[in-house]
Amino acid sequence: MSEGDALPPHLCPVPQRVLRQQQFTSLEEKPQFPGASADFVDKLDFIQPNVISGIPIYRVMDRQGQIINPDEDPQLSQEQVLKFYKTMTLLNTMDRILYESQRQGRISFYMTNYGEEGTHVGSAAALDDTDLVFGQYREAGVLMYRGYPLDLFMAQCYGNASDTGKGRQMPVHYGCRDRHFVTISSPLATQIPQAVGAAYAFKRDNASRAVICYFGEGAASEGDAHAGFNFAATLECPILFFCRNNGYAISTPTSEQYRGDGIAARGPGYGIMSIRVDGNDVFAVYNATREARRRAIAENQPFLIEAMTYRIGHHSTSDDSSAYRSVDEVNYWDKQDHPISRLRHHMLGRGWWDEEQEKSWRKKSRKRVMEAFEQAERKLKPSPQHLFSDVYCEMPPQLQKQQEALARHLRLYGEHYPLEHFEK
């Protein structure tokens, strides 16, 4: 037979690769790619973003403060529930006074926590006192729950000589080493990868400590959030990502912020255990945070908590929220579904609180805040020399020249500056 003649089909040799394919077992038919776990399909079908119904919202209390499922009742003592309530209401009182202080030109800036008090207190109560906190800038209630005094809140906002930051941070950028609360920085989401690094350090030291990192749903759009999620999952870090989804970020409604199912839906994509909770239910926040913390330490893995809440106040004193939402919408959340009123209903129902106690506490808490406010306003500002301190162990020559130049300038033109308001 010549080279060009073809063999009949029944005499053609079967290629070895075909024989090998025919010998595959059902187990070997599964994909062996290292990048994902899945099955083969033979039908072209794109995954729709809305195939799966929305992640449910875990709650313990209804809007009237009634426990829905007794098995989910955290069984907290009356003393602890009262601490929840008093912290939330004291924070609310401080907010009102400092907000008005800014409007009167007494401080430069302020951010209220109206409507989000339940996320602060519920999560803070579930942590160990030595757990490290990375806040964004609306977590004053976490620090307050840990016992940070009113006079230091005021000192920071006024930038006076008692401010532990020596007046070098804008208002509401709190920090406290003793209470394991990392100083807040203004840029969005910078704290997320930093928090993951701290959690990784805890893991390496077998410290039995967790890190909690707070951020808003707007900050979750920053690149740092995605990097932080991925590092935490792959390095198996004991961290709680706590997202306060308050609906509007700075001024962007969630409908324009993202197209997916909120922030909790992103967790599984990174391999992170996730839950969505009712952020206006302080007990739900407490339960979710407590269990997430326990498992984060025991299993060395990250958890993502998305607390659904509502920002009742403006984003800050630089914002006018009436430009992007209605007054009726704000009034609904303020009057019908507020975390403070929900907890008050619960306490009233259990006989742990009454109207007389409410009036007495409101009067007492306002007096405490006003005393701290008046004291902060009377104090001198930090010395201008603090412009040059706490950066280097030994001051470099260029900074020393700047310090000397400032001293010469003040000697020549000091009468033009209100130096009497500053410490010497």
UniProtKB/TrEMBL annotation:
<dbReference type="GO" id="GO:0005759">
    <property type="term" value="C:mitochondrial matrix"/>
</dbReference>
<keyword id="KW-0809">Transit peptide</keyword>
<comment type="function">
    <text>Together with BCKDHB forms the heterotetrameric E1 subunit of the mitochondrial branched-chain alpha-ketoacid dehydrogenase (BCKD) complex. The BCKD complex catalyzes the multi-step oxidative decarboxylation of alpha-ketoacids derived from the branched-chain amino-acids valine, leucine and isoleucine producing CO2 and acyl-CoA which is subsequently utilized to produce energy. The E1 subunit catalyzes the first step with the decarboxylation of the alpha-ketoacid forming an enzyme-product intermediate.</text>
</comment>
<dbReference type="InterPro" id="IPR029061">
    <property type="entry name" value="THDP-binding"/>
</dbReference>
<keyword id="KW-0786">Thiamine pyrophosphate</keyword>
<dbReference type="Pfam" id="PF00676">
    <property type="entry name" value="E1_dh"/>
</dbReference>
<comment type="function">
    <text>The branched-chain alpha-keto dehydrogenase complex catalyzes the overall conversion of alpha-keto acids to acyl-CoA and CO(2). It contains multiple copies of three enzymatic components: branched-chain alpha-keto acid decarboxylase (E1), lipoamide acyltransferase (E2) and lipoamide dehydrogenase (E3).</text>
</comment>
<dbReference type="GO" id="GO:0160157">
    <property type="term" value="C:branched-chain alpha-ketoacid dehydrogenase complex"/>
</dbReference>
<protein>
    <recommendedName>
        <fullName>2-oxoisovalerate dehydrogenase subunit alpha</fullName>
        <ecNumber>1.2.4.4</ecNumber>
    </recommendedName>
</protein>
<dbReference type="GO" id="GO:0003863">
    <property type="term" value="F:branched-chain 2-oxo acid dehydrogenase activity"/>
</dbReference>
<keyword id="KW-0630">Potassium</keyword>
<dbReference type="GO" id="GO:0046872">
    <property type="term" value="F:metal ion binding"/>
</dbReference>
<dbReference type="InterPro" id="IPR001017">
    <property type="entry name" value="DH_E1"/>
</dbReference>
<keyword id="KW-0560">Oxidoreductase</keyword>
<keyword id="KW-0496">Mitochondrion</keyword>
<comment type="similarity">
    <text>Belongs to the BCKDHA family.</text>
</comment>
<keyword id="KW-0479">Metal-binding</keyword>
<dbReference type="GO" id="GO:0120552">
    <property type="term" value="P:branched-chain alpha-keto acid decarboxylation to branched-chain acyl-CoA"/>
</dbReference>
<comment type="subunit">
    <text>Heterotetramer of 2 alpha/BCKDHA and 2 beta chains/BCKDHB that forms the branched-chain alpha-keto acid decarboxylase (E1) component of the BCKD complex. The branched-chain alpha-ketoacid dehydrogenase is a large complex composed of three major building blocks E1, E2 and E3. It is organized around E2, a 24-meric cubic core composed of DBT, to which are associated 6 to 12 copies of E1, and approximately 6 copies of the dehydrogenase E3, a DLD dimer. Interacts with PPM1K.</text>
</comment>
<feature type="domain" description="Dehydrogenase E1 component">
    <location>
        <begin position="85"/>
        <end position="384"/>
    </location>
</feature>
<dbReference type="InterPro" id="IPR050771">
    <property type="entry name" value="Alpha-ketoacid_DH_E1_comp"/>
</dbReference>
